[in-house]
């Protein structure tokens, strides 16, 4: 095998591995919640939507997705800890593409910008954070003010 073939096959293997890892991570953790209330520009979601049971184990999701009909993009709600939730519109602040959420980041498929769970830019070309919403909670529910 010559040098060029070696580099080509190595890069292809690496890219395939990274792609498969991202795909597995997305499949594992993404939950689109349809069981929510939308009333007077306020979304109400049960906290239990963050919990899933798999093989008799209770697993806490890092984030969930909701998509109210009147918004052009979904909202990702990240559970930062038991007392802190952050809701961000999944619209890239660079040129408006829809972001793909993962466990700790939101990634733009258009030009590669990345945002953390708080909606802050961690990688350009985006220069500003995402649109976020005031989020409150009580014992049972999370409330997002649009
Ligand atoms: S639109 Fe998201 S990085 Fe350009």
List its salient traits.
binds FE2/S2 (inorganic) cluster; globular; 146 residues; seven-stranded antiparallel β-sheet; alpha+beta; four-stranded antiparallel β-sheet; 38% strand; Rieske Iron-sulfur Protein
Oligomer: single chain
Helix share bin? 10-25%
Give the total of domains.
2
Q: Based on CA inertia axes, which overall geometry fits?
A: globular
What does this structure look like?
By secondary structure, the protein is of the alpha+beta class. The protein has 2 domains: 1-30; 31-145, Rieske [2Fe-2S] iron-sulphur domain (Rieske Iron-sulfur Protein), CATH 2.102.10.10. It contains 1 helix and 13 strands; from the N terminus they run αβββββββββββββ. The chain is globular, with a radius of gyration of 18 Å. It starts with a helix and ends with a strand.
Furnish the topology, listing elements before pairings.
Blueprint: H1 3-29, E1 37-39, E2 42-46, E3 51-54, E4 57-60, E5 63-66, E6 75-81, E7 84-89, E8 100-101, E9 105-107, E10 114-116, E11 121-123, E12 132-137, E13 141-145
Antiparallel strand pairs: 1-2, 2-13, 3-4, 5-6, 6-7, 7-12, 8-9, 9-10, 10-11, 12-13
Residues 92, 94-97, 108, 110-113, 125-126 line the site of FE2/S2 (inorganic) cluster.
